[in-house]
Amino acid sequence: xxxxxxxxxxxxxxxxxxxxxxxxxxxxxxxxxxxxxxxxxxxxxxxxxxxxxxxxxxxxxxxxxxxxxxxxxxxxxxxxxxxxxxxxxxxxxxxxxxxxxxxxxxxxxxxxxxxxxxxxxxxxxxxxxxxxxxxxxxxxxxxxxxxxxxxxxxxxxxxxxxxxxxxxxxxxxxxxxxxxxxxxxxxxxxxxxxxxxxxxxxxxxxxxxxxxxxxxxxxxxxxxxxxxxxxxxxxxxxxxxxxx
Length: 244
What we know:
The structure is a single chain. Helix content is about 35%, strand content about 20%. It is of the alpha/beta class. The protein has a single domain, classed as Acetylglutamate kinase-like (Carbamate kinase, 3-Layer(aba) Sandwich). It has a nine-stranded mixed β-sheet with strand order 4-3-5-2-1-6-10-11-9, sandwiched between helices. Strands 7-8 form a two-stranded antiparallel ribbon. It is globular, with a radius of gyration of 17 Å. The two termini are about 35 Å apart.
C-alpha cells in the first residue's frame, strides 16, 4: 500500500461516474461497485475522505431550463437527484465494509443528516466516509462549486476532481480534437484565462482564493484515487506555483 501524501481529501464525483459509459442506464451497479472499491483503497491508506456527488446522469438544471423549466426549480430538482446518487454510493460502500454518512444541504432527514461542518469533520476523524449531497443548497451553484466550498470548509488538503475516460486537462477536448495536448501543471490564473472548462469559474476562483490545490485525473485509471492521494504523477495539478 502506497504512503498517503494527504491526510484529508475531498473527492468530486460527476453524475457520469455512476453510468459506466451506458447511455440507457442512469446508475450502473457494477460501475458504482468499482468506484466504491477505489474509495475503500483511499480509506485503507488511513486518509479521511469526503465526497461531493453530481447528478448529470439523472438530471441537469441547465438542460432542463432550455427545455422550458424554471431555472430555480430545475436546479432544486438536480440537487435532489444528487441525493439518489449519494444513497446508491452509500449502500455500495457499506456492503464492502466502509462506514459512511450522507449529509445533505437540503433537509431530507429521513435519509440524510443535514450538513453540519463540525459533525462532518468528526465523522471523518472516526474513519467514516462523508458523502455530501444536494450541492450547496442554492440554485445557480454547480456541484463543482459545492466541491470547492466543502473542501475549504472541511479543511481538505486537496480537491480531487475526477474525470471519466480523460486523464487530465487538455488544451482542447481530446475526444473531439486529435491535436489536443495534455497539460500536466497549471496555475489557477492559467486555468481561468485559458477557459479550459476544468470546472466552473466560481469553483476555480474559490480554490485560488484559498490556495486549495486541485488534481484532475481519470477515475477509471488503474489505482487512480490511491495514486492521486499518494502524490504519484497522475492527471493535471492546478495550484498557485509557477512551473519554470
